[in-house]
Q: What sequence folds into this?
């Protein structure tokens, strides 16, 4: 019986005897496999990248935003804070203030928060420390504010002057002592409105006092862990709804509620969905190119079978069985696929590596893609080879021998 | 040593290698059945060297293909080494070809990609006799036909006579009971033909059963018997 070893030897001889043609044939598979591998591994890299980005915004965060003014007060803050599974919550309000340091004046977004914010928003200090609830006229500066915005470095213990415009048009000017500088986050892709680099943080109580207000624009809360975040969010939602008089039937109707809720898990899910959708679209395109590649192999195998008709006759006259002729050509087709698969996988891996490196994203390479890539290419070769090989196997020996 | 292997066939019990009875073959051309062989009877004994002669188109190759199990008769009986070839499957026919029949063709029928040595060894990838050291045997056979210094040459690097020697070596690799040669010297000049016929004659002396189609009247001095075919009939028997 014809062994696999000998089939492969015969196949390699045949492939080697028409190098240019074989190279062009495998090119179809190379491109297809490379495209699939690159897409899947790029998808994995993107996904990991976004997950890391979103993770840097906060720890298991839940964002509650009011849609109208004068909605969220201390009452609601307590309600959120006392929800089981919540480890911290900071009210958040924002004003654009005219900030003056020495002789330079800049428009800067000032964020009113409490001491929980440091933990909830994953703030890391470069120098000094973050706000506490005992602070009054102190400020914590974002990295860019401290080093770039004013053309000179503002340090801890310097004083900046801020001018706020109240709702009634009155202006209030107040000096703030700098308590600390926030370290620049490593990643800064996600625009969530909480970008700390270009902001100044002051105590929310101070901000509300200056503005003459007693409500908050939103809460930034943290759940204990990722597993419970969805349940905790639901609980916060129902507590707020009850407290703010939202009818029970509207609890799942985002448009009917005067506030909105968003948590880290939902954002991650959205990102995952997006990258999965993108990945599967690209993979579908890549699969089509694989099909085209496999048709290419089938085509060339048909040509090979026709060209080698007399050879098939010779093999049969020497005692080769139909099944062995079939095996011989299928193996040849699979070897073509395999060669394409090896080069295609290598190209796909290198391509994805290059793209990911150029974009500064993490290298995530699912190792099993190598095996899947090679395996798929062999299967593609197998499928492409069945029809031509069957044609060869069924040839009548005498007719095949008479073929010129 | 190869010759000694071949003696085996003479010593064995059944003396009839080919037994053909009322063999008919016709080809379909469109709707018409074209009869080529009209009832051939032929018997070849072990160790015989039989020449088949006849004009071109008389059906010699067709008959040879039936004997060689490359094609099936339309009707009649072909018994090889006691086996009724009509009663066995395609796989068994292939095995019979692989083990018991060695072909030598006019056009050599070597695989151009393979070296002389690989061509000789090629049949053993599919069928090889137990206890044979096929690679060694391939080398010995190439030596026997005088090609010990051409083993790694491809067919294109060999002369016609050398190619036919490779084909003869290949036909002997599995120690067949029967060698079928279809005009083996048809593409060769007379001097080379003489040498090739010498090899067959030598094989015959060592006990090989050979059926050879030939046009060469010179052959009559080498063979035991000449069978004349004309228009699908055997003229003498
Ligand atoms: N496969 C085939 N189909 C149709 N006709 C064939 C086939 N093979 C042989 N023939 C015809 O059969 C006749 C005998 O051919 P062949 O046996 O090759 O003659 P030769 O005695 O020259 O070897 C020729 O007329 C040939 O055309
Ligand atoms: Mg002929």
A:
């Amino acid at each position: 019986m014809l062994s696999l070893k000998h089939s492969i030897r015969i196949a390699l001889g045949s492939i080697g005897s028409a190098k240019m043609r074989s190279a062009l044939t495998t090119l179809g598979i190379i491109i297809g496999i490379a495209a699939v591998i690159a897409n899947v591994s790029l998808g994995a890299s993107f996904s990991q990248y976004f997950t890391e980005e979103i993770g840097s915004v906060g720890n298991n965060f839940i964002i509650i935003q009011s849609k109208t003014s004068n909605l969220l007060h201390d009452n609601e803050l307590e309600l959120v804070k006392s929800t089981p599974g919540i480890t911290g919550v900071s009210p958040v309000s924002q004003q654009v203030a005219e900030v003056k340091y020495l002789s330079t004046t800049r428009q800067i977004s000032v964020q009113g928060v409490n001491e929980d914010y440091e933990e909830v928003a994953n703030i890391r200090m470069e120098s000094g420390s973050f706000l506490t609830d005992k602070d009054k006229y102190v400020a914590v500066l974002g990295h860019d504010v401290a080093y770039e915005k004013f053309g000179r470095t503002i340090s801890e213990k310097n004083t900046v002057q801020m001018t706020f415009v109240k709702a009634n048009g009155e202006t209030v000017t107040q000096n703030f002592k700098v308590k600390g500088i926030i370290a620049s986050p490593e990643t800064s892709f996600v625009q969530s409105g909480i970008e700390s680099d270009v902001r100044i943080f002051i105590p929310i109580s101070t901000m509300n006092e200056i503005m003459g207000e007693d409500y908050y624009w939103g809460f930034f809360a943290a759940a204990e862990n990722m597993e419970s975040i969805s349940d905790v969010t639901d609980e916060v939602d129902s507590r707020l709804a009850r407290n703010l008089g939202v009818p029970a039937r509207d609890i799942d109707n985002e448009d009917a509620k005067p506030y909105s809720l968003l948590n880290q898990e939902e954002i991650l899910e959205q990102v995952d969905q997006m990258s999965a959708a993108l990945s599967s679209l690209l993979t579908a395109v890549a699969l089509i190119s694989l099909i085209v590649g496999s048709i290419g192999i089938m085509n060339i195998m048909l040509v090979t079978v026709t060209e080698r008709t007399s050879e098939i006759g010779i093999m049969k006259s020497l005692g080769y069985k139909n099944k062995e002729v079939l095996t011989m050509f299928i193996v040849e087709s699979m070897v073509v696929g395999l060669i394409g698969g090896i080069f295609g996988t290598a190209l796909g891996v290198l391509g994805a590596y290059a793209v990911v490196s150029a974009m500064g994203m993490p290298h995530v390479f699912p190792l099993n893609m190598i095996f899947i890539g090679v395996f798929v290419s062999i299967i593609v070769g197998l499928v492409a080879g069945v029809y031509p090989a069957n044609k060869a196997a069924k040839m009548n020996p005498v007719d095949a021998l008479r073929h010129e | 040593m190869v010759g000694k292997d071949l003696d085996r066939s003479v010593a064995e019990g059944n003396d009839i290698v080919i037994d053909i009875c009322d063999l008919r073959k016709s080809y379909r051309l469109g709707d018409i059945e074209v009869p080529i062989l009209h009832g051939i009877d032929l018997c070849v004994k072990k160790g015989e060297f039989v020449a088949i002669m006849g004009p071109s188109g008389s059906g010699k190759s067709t008959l040879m293909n039936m004997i060689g199990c490359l094609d099936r008769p339309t009707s009649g009986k072909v018994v090889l080494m006691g086996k009724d070839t009509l009663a066995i499957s395609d796989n068994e026919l292939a095995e019979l070809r692989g083990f018991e029949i060695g072909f030598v063709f006019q056009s050599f029928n070597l695989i151009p990609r393979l070296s002389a040595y690989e061509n000789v060894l090629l049949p053993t990838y599919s069928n090889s006799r137990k206890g044979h050291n096929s690679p060694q045997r391939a080398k010995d056979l190439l030596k026997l036909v005088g090609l010990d210094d051409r083993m790694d040459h491809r067919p294109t690097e060999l002369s016609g006579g050398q190619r036919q020697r490779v084909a003869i070596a290949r036909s002997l690799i599995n120690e067949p009971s029967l060698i079928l040669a279809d005009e083996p010297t048809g593409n060769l000049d007379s001097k080379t033909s003489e040498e090739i016929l010498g090899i067959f004659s030598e094989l015959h002396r060592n006990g090989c059963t050979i059926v050879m189609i030939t046009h060469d009247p010179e052959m009559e001095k080498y063979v035991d018997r000449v069978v004349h075919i004309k228009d699908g009939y055997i003229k003498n028997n």
